[in-house]
Design goal:
Blueprint lengths: L1 H34 L4 H31 L2
Helix pairs in contact: 1-2
Length: 72
């Protein structure tokens, strides 16, 4: 029972954190492109890289949750 709660907590935090980060990154990138459209390619490249790092944190939490659930 405790293992299931730990798995659920890990996945909840691991999903909410990166989701908020990705939304914030996208919002700030849209604002920056709106202010300076000429810099869009540079901003977009940085945005995609930052989103990939935020998504990696979610994947790490998934791996930890699977380890908690299946490793005795």
């Amino acid at each position: 029972m405790i293992r299931l709660l730990a798995t659920a907590g890990t996945m909840a935090i691991g999903a909410i954190g990166p989701a908020i980060a990705i939304g914030w990154i996208g919002s700030k990138a849209s604002d920056a492109i709106g202010r300076n459209p000429e810099a869009a390619p540079k901003i977009q490249t940085s945005m995609v890289l930052a989103i990939a790092f935020a998504e990696a944190i979610g994947i790490y939490c998934l791996v930890v949750a699977l380890i908690i659930k299946f490793v005795p």
